[in-house]
Amino acid sequence: MTLNELLIAPVTDFAFMRRALAGCVALATGCAPMGVMLVLRRMSLMGDALSHAVLPGAAVGFIFGGFALPWLAGGGIAAGLLVALLAGLASRFTSLNEDASFAGFYLVSLAVGVVLVSRWGSNVDLIHLLFGSVLAIDDPALLLLASITTLTLLWLALNYRGVILECVDPGYLAVNGGRGSRYHLGLMVLTVFNLVAGFQAMGTLMAVGMMMLPATIARLWADTLAGLLLAAWLSGLAASVVGLLLSYHLNLPSGPAIVLVAGVLYLLSLWLAPHGWLGRRASKTHLQH
Amino acid sequence: MIRLDDITVCYRKHPAVHHVSGTFTAGGLTAVVGPNGAGKTTLLKAITGLQPLTTGKIVADGAIAYLPQLAELDRQFPLTVSELVLSGAWQRKGGFASLAGDEATRTQSALDRVGLSGFGERPISTLSGGQLQRARFARLLVQDTPIILLDEPFNNIDTRTRDTLLHILEHWRDESRTVAVVVHDMGIAHSHFPETLLLAHEVIAWGPTAATLDPANLDRAQQMTEYWQNDAPWCARP
């Protein structure tokens, strides 16, 4: 097999591969900064919880509209926002922590979703909803992906300073008239949007992988905020492209393939990166003073 | 100037701060002293607006800078020291206005004043406790507000850092700012603060430091905070 057949031909020969590639690039671009913010805010579990919360909405959408995009995406966004809202309210008005109330709501949500699909759909549908299919990205789905990524980048650019302050020192922002809840809410809403975007391509269970794994990998390589964002984006891109090609050549489901490649990058980083195992060992040698 | 007008702050109906009235004067350096659990932090938070009042009114004649205890800052966050200090410009510049020029100069001179001249580009995670406290003071300098509230700023830091920070407090007094500081070390209160508020839920004494911190008052403050009754009668004052 030539290099051309291995890397280039799949994309030039097949329109569905081109769309999948464009979709994954958009997804990686939007998910990377979101993941970095969530990891820095110690909200990684929140992303996970929200990704499960999206399922019943998508299931209800699926029951009404089949695999039609507006139904799936609309339902997913509605369910994700509802769970985020309920968990936020529960933590504000009871003594529960936000992560505990999130865990409660997302488990219920996931169960409702699985019950809905297995009662009114088939097992194949359930697999599709859970693991998605990058290769089935059509033009409307691509448009949705690109729009969500654009929205994410614009919002982050416009609110960057405030978001960072809210992450690093929320108390300071609160005293100085910054509305911290606005940034928290924005992050939450955009997380749901990006999960729904990712869920189109990769399914609800895999979508969060595109968000969290690149950000976690970046944390092992970079020290600065700019470095984190760049490293997360690059590893997300790499995982998307390599995973997509793997799934094409080996006939694997594309969502899990992409997440697996990201997983391999993660393991390699744990071993080799400056903040990984080798880096720690190297830092035992020291300067003279 | 900050005027407290009969303020009460309750947690679950138990007053942490109980009918406190008085004035922090501009150019006055006030130590807020009291046993643990006396409501000192609650009082500062109430003044900043972080803690809602149950009753009463607070009048402050300018912007407020507040330095909480160390624990509230995420030290692992990948931020440089100068970025942390520069965030003092938030209230003036918000999310968009340029931070180059004026604010960058202000940040540099603040770093110089707290003795962190070469530290600007280092990540905050590499700072020692004392250095981080210097950086937080540098941010207060950048904030440049007429009212400054500090919650136990001298805990767990070495004497040199403490002296640098105390020197900055004196500057603020000379510039007629209103400064209130929660202090645990009576020695510091006596040597550096002309005024003291002795708090134990209520005002035990508020005035010149030597008179406020006499043994009888301190005894009374101790007793007031060790005393907690779940079946206490309702306070008759509204």
UniProtKB/TrEMBL annotation, chain A:
Keywords: Membrane, Transmembrane, Transmembrane helix, Transport
Cellular location(s): Cell membrane; Membrane
Its membrane topology: Multi-pass membrane protein
SUPFAM superfamilies: ABC transporter involved in vitamin B12 uptake, BtuC
Keyword Cell cycle part of the UniProt annotation: no
GO BP annotation list: response to zinc ion; transmembrane transport
Tagged with keyword Transmembrane: yes
InterPro entries in the record: ABC_BtuC-like (IPR037294), ABC_TroCD (IPR001626)
Pfam short name (any one): ABC-3
Residues passing through the membrane, by range: 20-40, 71-90, 102-121, 141-158, 187-213, 225-246, 258-278
GO cellular component: ATP-binding cassette (ABC) transporter complex
Signal peptide: none
Coiled-coil segments: none
Family classification: Belongs to the ABC-3 integral membrane protein family.
Protein name listed in UniProt: Zinc/manganese transport system permease protein
From TrEMBL, chain B:
GO molecular function ontology, one term from the record: ATP hydrolysis activity
Domain ABC transporter: 2-226
SMART domains cross-referenced by the UniProt entry: AAA (SM00382)
Pfam families: ABC_tran (PF00005)
Keywords of this entry: ATP-binding, Cell membrane, Membrane, Nucleotide-binding, Transport
Family, as annotated: Belongs to the ABC transporter superfamily.
Cross-referenced PANTHER family: IRON TRANSPORT SYSTEM ATP-BINDING PROTEIN HI_0361-RELATED, METAL TRANSPORT SYSTEM ATP-BINDING PROTEIN TM_0124-RELATED
Protein name: Zinc/manganese transport system ATP-binding protein
Protein's organism: Silvimonas terrae
